[in-house]
Amino acid sequence: MIYKKNKLTIDGFDIGTLVKKYKTPIYCYSDKKIKKNIQNFKNHFKNFNPLICYAVKANSNLGILKELKKNNLGADVVSKGELMKALKAGVNPKKIVFSGVGKINEEIEYAINKNILLINAESKSEILEIEKIAKKKRKIVNIGIRLNPNTDAKTLSQISTGKKENKFGVNQKVFLELVKLVKKSKNLYLKCLSVHIGSQILNHTPYQNMLKVISKIIKKSKYNFEYIDLGGGMGIDYDHKNSYLDFKKYSENIKKFLKIHHCKIIFEPGRSIVGNSGVLITKIIYIKEGFKKDFVIIDAAMNDLMRPALYGAKHKIMPMKKFSKISKKIYEFVGPICESTDTFGSFKNYQKLAEKDYLVICDVGAYGMSLSSNYNVRPKPLELLLKNSKMKILNKRQKISDLM
């Protein structure tokens, strides 16, 4: 996004044009940015040509999934609904991995029927359930086992998934026992060792530590895994301070790993593909004067963008029109929902704002709309895709009548 004559634009579109045509709040995605992110990801890991299975939970919009499919991405899904959407978008079943700790019988059966690449199991009970269904169907099902490597991703505790206290995967002792168990099965074929240590990771060291743990466990298991699923978790620059994961160092660590272990790598990126492609455009309803700060009350709320309330996450907020006059007071941007957590952050030295002005909340392409709800019986916003100088409606704005 850049300012042209003090007016904010995205992919050449004046934000003012969008808000005139559509009411706020609006989720707006850049197809150009998504493609650039995909190419950047592929370029950094091209030496070993990984299978890239986009994490559908980051943004499950069908229109976006179709664009990702056009770029030859697979899918990482965590529910039957996500799997159905990936298939509807045209994703090749042999590029789909089903993850998650609590797959129910119906979901496992559906995944088996669709002949997807892998079901990544996370417990002995789940493996036995998959085997039972496979036996009933007289099929051999490809599975992976998710290892909990007890690796700290050094990120928010709410999005950590690779430490021993987290619910995901199994510890090393159980992992080795499960490898032996699956080897004896006539209906299961163990293809993959899977890990995922967390999200919004901007330091390559946790990944380096994770690879060391995986290497040791493979040697102990004496098993040749066809795939090693390294998960995702690559972070984006929410602060706009040029904070990036060093993909080059991560790639070099993987290349060293592959010299010892000859296998195919799977990645499950979500945020790093779509996170910085999306913005949430919103309108200032009121500016309420306070003692030490002014509350800027906007028409987007925590039901539209949950990350700040859920994680205390920070997003850059940009005014649609740029002025030089600075507010003497702190601005706290808040939504209209009746919760104190319905806030998007406080900012000092922000430009002077007025009621009815428009704002843009940045980097909401991941875990924005996918975490949205109808809390307070609020309709979900419109979703737009900017592609080839055209505006395409991905999802119409909900009407209150839809919720009755």
Observed structural traits:
eight-stranded parallel β-barrel, nine-stranded mixed sheet, 2 domains, 20 strands, 404 residues, Lyase, Ornithine Decarboxylase, Chain A, domain 1, TIM Barrel, 28% helix, 11 helices, 24% strand
What report would you give on this structure?
It is a single chain. With 404 residues, the chain is α/β, with parallel strands linked by helices. It has 2 domains: 2-29 and 275-403, Lyase, Ornithine Decarboxylase, Chain A, domain 1 (Beta Barrel); 100-267, Alanine racemase (TIM Barrel), CATH 3.20.20.10. It is 28% helix and 24% strand. The protein has 11 helices and 20 strands. It has helices spanning 15-21, 31-44, 62-70, 80-88, 105-113, 124-137, 172-183, 205-221, 247-260, 271-274, 307-311, and strands spanning 2-4, 7-10, 13-14, 26-30, 51-55, 74-77, 96-98, 118-121, 141-146, 188-194, 227-229, 264-267, 278-289, 293-298, 317-319, 330-334, 343-347, 358-361, 382-387, 390-395. The strands form 3 sheets. Strands 4, 13, 14, 15, 16, 17, 18, 19 and 20 form a 9-stranded mixed beta sheet that branches. Strand 16 (330-334) and strand 17 form a beta hairpin. Helix 5 crosses helix 6 (124-137) and helix 8 runs parallel beside helix 9 (247-260). The longest helix has 17 residues, at 205-221. The two termini are 38 Å apart. Mean pLDDT is 93; it is low at 158-163.
